[in-house]
Backbone:
């Protein structure tokens, strides 16, 4: 079987496919090329392998021990199921587990958001009450000052009243002496 | 029983990826330990590097292994298992990143400000396995570094960015501060050049 002739830019297209940067026009060309030349798949895999060299320089991290346990459990579960025929339950279990985790996470953050909202609301209330308290204190001080002023005025009036009474008494005494004469 | 498991693992340890996978499909569940020891850390590390989230990276690793074990997606005569797993991890991780919305961004920011729970430290056995793996594969890492060293630093940076962080050409161009056409052209040329170097070396 002869190999179909490839266009000059086939490597460019292959690289574009792997790098996910083919334009719409290039994508159409690429699709047609793949149909015409099935051997291209091997070239893609080979170039992909080259690109995967970058995975060897990624800094290594250790997962938790539970990860291996979960994968072991998945294998054992599938092994048990296989005796009853092929089944895709593990993926459902995995999705369910993952969905559960996601909902848990959403729940956590919703609770946090509600908590933060409550704290913000209470803080606003405290601030408002504090401002009102300060205004009331100012008003109280003002009224206290007015009361003190009024007391001073009352004391003045009392003193004047006492003076007037004394003058009146003196005048009455003088009048009584004049009548006796 | 544990001694038997250890014996099986040691026996499987010397076999090819295909033989180990076949053994697993034949019911030798100990084979999963061998596969995980060979590729689990690499898959997890790549997923962790791309997703920057330990929980998500573990879920992704589990998914990738499920795909390997429960489907016939890997074709041993066409591709090495290592390359298959890395391609799958990378592709799944980019899909996962695309799926993340603004809620994820807010939750991530909140978790940064108010950590909900401390990151669970890797347990000793896992850490020990990683160290063992590191010792076994340090030659591979050194070889990869040496191989990638054939590229000029500029091209290396472009490909590294495209491999682990940016799946879209527009975003790649933005990160590189280059017009999209130039970024696309440079990344393709760099990959082709690297590929030719590898083919020549092989």
Residues:
């Amino acid at each position: 079987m002869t190999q179909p002739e490839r266009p000059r830019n086939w490597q460019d297209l292959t690289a574009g496919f792997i790098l996910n940067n083919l334009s719409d026009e290039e994508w159409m060309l690429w699709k047609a090329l793949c149909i015409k030349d099935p051997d291209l798949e091997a070239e893609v895999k080979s170039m992909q392998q080259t690109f995967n060299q970058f995975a060897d320089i990624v800094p290594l991290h250790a997962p938790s021990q539970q990860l291996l346990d979960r994968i072991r459990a998945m294998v054992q579960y599938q092994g048990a199921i296989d005796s009853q025929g092929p089944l895709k339950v593990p993926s459902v279990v995995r999705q369910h587990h993952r969905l559960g985790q996601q909902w848990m996470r959403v729940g956590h953050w919703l609770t946090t958001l509600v908590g933060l909202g409550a704290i913000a609301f209470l803080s606003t209330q405290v601030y408002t009450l504090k401002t009102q308290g300060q205004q009331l204190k100012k008003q109280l001080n003002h009224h206290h000052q007015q009361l003190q002023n009024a007391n001073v005025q009352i004391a003045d009036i009392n003193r004047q009243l006492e003076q007037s009474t004394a003058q009146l008494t003196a005048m009455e005494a003088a009048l009584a002496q004049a009548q006796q004469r | 029983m544990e001694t038997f498991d250890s014996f099986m693992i040691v026996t499987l340890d010397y076999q090819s990826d295909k033989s180990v996978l076949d053994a697993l499909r034949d019911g030798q569940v100990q084979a999963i330990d061998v596969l995980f020891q060979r590729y689990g850390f690499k898959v997890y590390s790549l997923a962790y590097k791309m997703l920057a989230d330990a929980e998500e990276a573990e879920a992704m690793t589990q998914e990738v292994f499920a795909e390997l074990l429960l489907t016939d997606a890997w074709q041993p005569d066409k591709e090495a298992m290592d390359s298959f797993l890395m391609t799958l991890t990378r592709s799944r991780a980019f899909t996962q990143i695309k799926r993340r919305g603004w809620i994820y961004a807010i939750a991530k920011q909140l978790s940064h400000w108010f950590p909900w729970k401390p990151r669970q430290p890797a347990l000793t056995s896992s850490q020990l396995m990683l160290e063992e793996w590191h010792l076994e594969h340090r030659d591979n890492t050194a070889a990869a570094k040496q191989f990638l060293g054939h590229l000029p630093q500029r091209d290396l940076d472009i490909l590294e960015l495209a491999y682990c962080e940016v799946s879209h050409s527009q975003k790649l161009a933005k990160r590189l501060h280059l017009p999209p056409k130039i970024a696309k052209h440079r990344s393709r040329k760099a990959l082709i050049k690297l590929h030719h170097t590898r083919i020549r070396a092989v």
Summary: The longest helix of chain B spans residues 124-148. The mean pLDDT of chain B is 84. Chain B touches chain A through 77 residues (CB under 8 Å). Chain B has ten helices and no strands.
